[in-house]
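Example 212, ligand zinc ion.
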Amino acid sequence: MIIKKLPLGPIEANTYVLFDEKSKEALIIEASGDANAIKQELDALGANLKYILLTHGHFDHVFGVNDVKKLYPDAKVFIHKEDEVLTENIALQCAHFGIDGVEKPEIDEYIDENTKLSIGDIEIKVIHTPGHSKGSVCYLLGDDLFSGDTLFFEEIGRCDLFGGSFSEIEKSIRNKIFTLDKNIAVHPGHGQDSTIGHEIKYNAYFGENSRY
Ligand SMILES: [Zn+2]
Ligand SMILES: [Zn+2]
């Protein structure tokens, strides 16, 4: 599997392009900005875009969904049902951050932990990790975890936005993320990559050497 990372949009949320060389199928995690930049990566790989997977409904991650969908009408957009309230109220979210002109992203289907998705032979495991938002999810493909705004390099996502909860994010990270294999790479929604093992040790909130 080939992974390309594109920090896009007004506050540089990472869009990831994941490509299975064998089947030529691809998916993107988030559509955080310029749809043409995403298309360029897909074209360079000769990829067919199958899915647009959203880790949650905040505007900085869904900014480019409708534009990508215009370029790839067959690609399906997925989000957890509990974040529908965020995508439905995108204008309110944007007003809160002083940004306008973001359209409500069109969602095709809701996902949960029982949803079965794959590109080629690669299966996608959905892990529901509420805390940053109620419907936040992480996606696990083999040894790669896409953690959205739940877990960052040595940090965690903020819990003070609508639907956020510190006790929920703690449960999600300790019980569902830190129990994964230590060698799994963590690809967050903002900033640099990490590994599960690194976060278990060094995460500022829940690591062994936590400062809090
Ligand atoms: Zn967020
Ligand atoms: Zn974000």
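Summary: The mean pLDDT is 96.
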